[in-house]
Amino acid sequence: MSERVKEVAIQEADRIKTLTTDAARSGAYLYPVRGMAYFLSHRVLWKPLTAKLVPTLSLGLGVTTFMFVFTYLPQAALMTFTQGPLAAVSAALLVLSESSTIFTMLSKTLLIEDALVDTFDGVLMSKGTTDLVSSGRQIKTGNNPMARLGKVIKSPLARFSPNALIRYFMYLPLNFIPVVGTIMFVILQGRRMGPSAHTRYFQLKGWNSAQKEKHIEENKAAFGVAAALLELVPVASILFAFTNTVGAALWAADMENGAVNEHGTSPHLRDQAKKAE
Q1: How far apart are CA 192 and CA 111, in angstroms?
Q2: Which of 96, 104, 199, 225 has the most CB atoms around it within 10 Å of its CB?
Q3: Of 192, 195, 194, 197, which is closest to residue 246 (Cα–Cα)?
Q4: Is 222 in a helix, a strand, or coil?
Q5: pLDDT in tens, 14-60
Q6: Within 84-208, where are the H helices?
Q7: Nearest Cα residue to 177 out of 7, 16, 26
Q8: Is 179 left (phi over 0), alpha (psi -120 to 50) or beta?
Q9: Bridge partners, residue 139, by sequence
Q10: Cα(first)–Cα(last) distance of the chain, in Å?
Q11: What are 96-147's pLDDT values in tens digits?
């Protein structure tokens, strides 16, 4: 039995190593960074975020307070057995991570889903892919890409599934394993986040399941891992949800404009990734 467990562990470690190598070589992980730069330099994209800022911050404060009141002490007590005097700090960081994840999932479902759709479509409009956006919503006349967005005629991003939250807490114990466990946790989260970032793109393209799976398989977890790392930052996760959406839209626009290779990654970004290695 122990040999079987060891064999599975080695196979899983090799798979994680392969995913990490593919992600680094693809250069797709640079799109979240591009998303931040593009978002900050284009004030017109700020409106969907600022319109939802007060209710989302209120939700974040409520979730964080609840988590610290009801979950901090039990987790600190449990971590005392493995981390000793560091348990207090580690538990606080863990609760912040949990709070950030719950807050992000709830806010995306209850408060900012439409705002993220508008942001994604607005970026596509600004990059000249109006025909693609027009397949999913009405387009108005004008020069402002956000002001041109009309009524949505295709369903927006996928609603929150409880499975995502269950899967998150299933993976959470990996963080108890120093370094390696945290890396595995982020990669697994990235595998989920990568495909979800392009849900709107899949809808606009009208892709079937086979086409979606082909795209996801080719692009691995490169984008998702970088995006997941950013959205694990407490409080700032809501901002990164928007910048990651911008990055995903920039990636989609590159694919539409032919500025990508067969792997769905910009050759320019691939060159940048090679220089970074």
Answers
A1: 21
A2: 225
A3: 197
A4: helix
A5: 666 666 565 556 677 889 999 999 999 999 999 999 999 899 888 88
A6: 87-110, 113-126, 130-134, 162-171, 180-197, 199-205
A7: 16
A8: left
A9: 149
A10: 39
A11: 878 877 888 888 888 898 899 999 999 999 999 999 999 999 999 888 999 9
Q: Look at the block and give the residue holding tokens 């220089």.
A: 275
Phi, psi of 194 (to 5 degrees): -55, -55
Bridge partners of residue 152, in order along the sequence: 137
How many residues are recorded in the chain?
A: 277
Q: What is residue 149's three-state secondary structure?
A: strand
**Which tokens in the block code for residue 23?**
């992600």
Residue 15, both tokens: 């798979």
Q: How far apart are CA 181 and CA 14, in angstroms?
A: 14
pTM of full prediction above 0.85: no
Specify whether the CB–CB gap between 116 and 108 falls below 8 A: yes
Q: Looking at residue 44, what DSSP letter applies?
A: G
Q: How far is CA 121 from the centre of its chain?
A: 17
Apex 88 CA angle, 87 and 89, nearest 5? 95
